[in-house]
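Bumping with the actual sequence this time:
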Amino acid sequence: MTQFKFRLPRQPFLHGKFVDSHRKDRHELTSATDGSQVMTDLQWAALEDVELAVDSAEKGLKDWQALSPEKRRSYLLRYADLIESHAEELAYLEVIVTGKPMVLASGYEVPQLANILRYYAGYTDKLSGESYPLGDGLVKMVVHEPLGVCAAITAFNSPMILFALKVAPALASGNVMIIKGSEFNSLSSLRLAELATEAGLPNGAINVLIGGADVGNALATNKRIRKISFTGSVATGKKVQIAATESNLKRVTLELGGKSPVVIFRDANLNNAARAASNFLAFNGQGCILGTRILVQEEISDPFLQALKQLIQEHAKTLGSDPMELSTLSCPLFHLQQHTRVAEFLDLGKQEAEVLVGGSVCQRPGLYVEPTVFVNPKPGARILHEEIFGPVAVVQTFKTESEAIEMANNTEYGLGAFIHTNDISRALRVASKIQSGTVAINTSENMSPQMPFGGNKISGLGRENARYALMAYTEPKSIFIRYL
């Protein structure tokens, strides 16, 4: 029997404590690193548990809203501090399942989670409204009121950051939250809910359920839930929106992935651009905004491809490294279904394009595939237009700026884009014409609590982060007062 460094949560977290699910079956979690067994008794929620979560949330809502904004802020700040003090534990709960590098989970994701909470904690007493000039005998005011019980469905790739993106603006604006964590990567979400109670938040302020599509559908159709936020695939996002509409027209935020272009002009610093382009390997390609369509100007395509290939080959040598070692940056695909999907795209890519590097499933324990770059794709190639969500990129060349813009926009997705050039006029000109929610120029940085995050076209609906997310958890109310 494997001995784990920290306790592994396995039950739904409802009204301030772990409770047994109403389902009798139990589910297995295995390590993506080597296939070893993590647990055999993970408890997915039953539909009865969804109703209990909503009951709890309604009670917690009254307690949360009874607190002053200053008190709510103090609880959220205490929560952020407590999360930081448990950074190793929270990261460990993801690493043992997914094989995600400990250095990224503990050194990037946990600090980001805490920063997002602190950012929104500062908003608890700053939900300002509007007033309009007197003169018609009326005082006219607009106030922003919380929606009430909210729900969120998070993805398997980054549950801690997604937890923060949903929970922080919801609680800061006076709502409560029910999270459905991914059945593939749920342990950190369960522990985060428990830490909220330890930080003093009222029971019911945050409830966490684990389960499959039936639990997600139950949340999307529940008429007592006023908003649902979803991160995941386009196909599931459409189902969430339909369910939300057909039930009680609950508010919806959708973040549905991308096929982000990386546009590299001939005047870009070649080594910096190649290193930035290789960022599609972050989290083994399991990031919605990662640049997986690389567009490079013809004049520099040969030296660029040589530099990129060398970086990919160096990264490939590290596959299978111990994720607990702080020097490890590579990782497997996080669950078997994703591994199967990426392997199918690798086979498809060999029919639709040429292989620059990689292209095969690794012959070693664990859910590994070779980091892969395809070049010269056929027109209409699926690898060029569909989100793969793995360490796979496709390279095309362009001649002119206008051609680069047209190629960058030749996708149904519109989440992010990356531009590399030393000409700031060109950078701003191209950025204004690319159809995406975020554009990064000469950097791979693409997320900050102060900046709205979300997509155009089928990449989603609404925004997370910044004041935009806060407003999405409120409803404006117009008030008229006659004073004459």
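The tokens above came from a reply further down the thread. The mean pLDDT is 97.
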